[in-house]
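Quick log. Single chain, no ligands specified.
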Amino acid sequence: MSLFPLFVNLEGKSVLVVGGGKTASRKIKGLLPFKANIVVVADKISQSIMKLYKNGTINLFERKFRFSDLNDKDMVIAAIDDTGLQKAIYEQCSAMNIAINCVDSPSCCSFIFPSLIVKGSLVVGISTSSKAPAVSKEIRKMITKILPDNIDKIIEEMAELRHSAIKGKSRQNMIKRIVSERFRKLQTE
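-> predicted structure:
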């Protein structure tokens, strides 16, 4: 089954990461550009996570997970190897209507992390619906190579134009025309 892509505003949302290893670190780094309030709970902490904590980027509780850690959370990532605990966290999050991702356990996820391209305001998520993450990563590399270096500048210019012109069909057509011209020009350079 294919998964529906959904983009969510995480700014100021409380995100719990259970686990303190390399996978947890990778998930945290993927979340950082989206300005969530990240809380990590783990009894063993990698150096990269400790550095983020010492820099004030994340909150950290160096101890074993407690189910009370789920209280007031908007999203949970379980980056742990214990599949029994993953399942228990998944079931509790489901009962509490909390979005949950248990790393490498698609059956214990209400959402998955796509392979991401983030360039300023541009966010591209690529997914194989958990079937072949390595394929998603290669596609991400291909797309990244063809994106113009100044893509964020182009987006900001179009946003200014969008906000300054009168809303309606003529504004839509004007912006579409300008963007098409801009990208045609980029392809010939």
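The chain has six helices and seven strands.
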